[in-house]
Design a protein that fits this description.
- Helices cover about 55% and strands about 5% of the residues.
- By secondary structure, the chain is mostly helical.
- The chain has a three-stranded antiparallel sheet with strand order 3-5-4. Strands 1-2 form a two-stranded antiparallel ribbon.
- It is globular and about 80 Å long.
- The termini are far apart.
């Protein structure tokens, strides 16, 4: 009977995985069917325009078939989808908003234009990318007319003169939103917050080494910017790490709360305790059995009955001579 039960369970699991896989496709195939480049597809997922589901078989996230059908039958497909994930740099973005590149850069440094991506070019310069759709919305909003023409207000000019540049911080905030949207586990959510903090800050908030190790298992990977350890990769890592004191405090508070939630959901795994000999119960042990032995107090000479015969005879002659 047990053999039939095991067979039934294995078959049921296999059917469930097969059903899930039949009802979804890989991200690569979904991008191809939706007419998107890989980078466009990844951005569409981050923006929530394409829904993904976990793979029961342990692979990467997959895209349900009905999600692909929903997108393909929507009005304006595929142009509307491509337009929604189109990104532009400073030069193209300035042309789109009909402003100079200098004004565009000032608006971005002030935090009024929020980058959605970045990369490090061959000259080790950071190139920020923006959603074209958002830039068009900014331009058509009448409340922004004064920012697009004329002199920049004096207070804002003073901030720029002091070196204000909110592009890295705004990107981090947006990137964290992307990560949290895709996290399907409390520990993954905590790891998303931790990914923007310096390791020293993480250790200060999460003092348990097993919990820190568990967080590293869920830590999201930053998009590659050059080979690991290269100047480009180091620069990208700096951008992805919070530096402003108030931003760090906010992330530390969020990390503590997220770890507390994750801990309540499922504690971090720990090694099993080693089995060792049971210690005697001091209340039930015979009197004197628990007294410690002083170093050097042991009699290391063998008992009389265990001495060799020739040694016992020698001791006997010495005793008779003394008498």
């Amino acid at each position: 009977m047990s053999g039939n039960t095991i067979t039934h369970k294995v078959t049921a699991v296999g059917e469930r995985i097969g059903t899930t896989r039949d009802a979804s496709v890989t991200r690569h195939r979904a991008a191809r069917e939706l007419g998107l480049r890989r980078s466009e597809f990844e951005l569409a997922v981050q923006l929530g325009r394409v829904r993904t589901v976990p793979d029961d078989a342990g692979g990467g996230p997959r895209v349900p078939r009905d999600e692909i059908d929903r997108i393909r039958t929507a009005d304006g497909f595929p142009e509307a989808l491509r337009t929604g994930v189109r990104t532009v740099g400073t030069t193209e973005g300035a042309a789109l908003m009909d402003v100079t590149t200098a004004r565009f850069t000032r608006l971005a440094r002030l935090g009024l234009l929020v980058p959605v991506k970045f990369y490090v070019n061959r000259y080790r310069a950071v190139v920020w990318l923006y959603l074209a759709e958002e830039l068009r919305q900014f331009r058509t909003d009448e409340r922004n007319s004064a920012l697009l023409k004329g002199r920049t207000p004096e207070g804002l000019r003073d901030q720029l003169g002091e070196g204000l540049d909110l592009r890295p911080r705004n990107w981090r905030g947006r990137h964290l939103g992307f990560l949290l949207r895709q996290a399907d586990d409390p520990w993954a959510r905590a790891a998303a917050v931790a990914s923007l903090l310096d390791p020293a800050e993480i250790s200060d908030v999460v003092t348990d080494p097993y919990e820190r190790s568990h967080l590293r298992r869920f830590r999201p990977e930053l998009a590659l910017h050059g080979s690991p350890g290269s100047p480009a990769a180091q620069l990208a890592d700096e951008i992805a790490t919070a530096t402003d004191p108030d931003e760090i405090d906010w992330l530390r508070s969020d990390l503590a709360a997220a770890v507390e939630t994750a801990r309540g959901h499922r504690p971090a795994p720990r090694p099993a305790p080693r089995a060792g000999p049971a210690l005697p119960d001091p209340e039930s042990a015979p009197r004197g059995a628990m007294e410690p032995v002083r170093p050097g107090a042991e009699d290391l000479s063998p008992p009389e009955k265990e001495r060799p015969r020739w040694l016992s005879g020698l001791f006997g002659r010495l005793r008779r001579g003394d008498s």
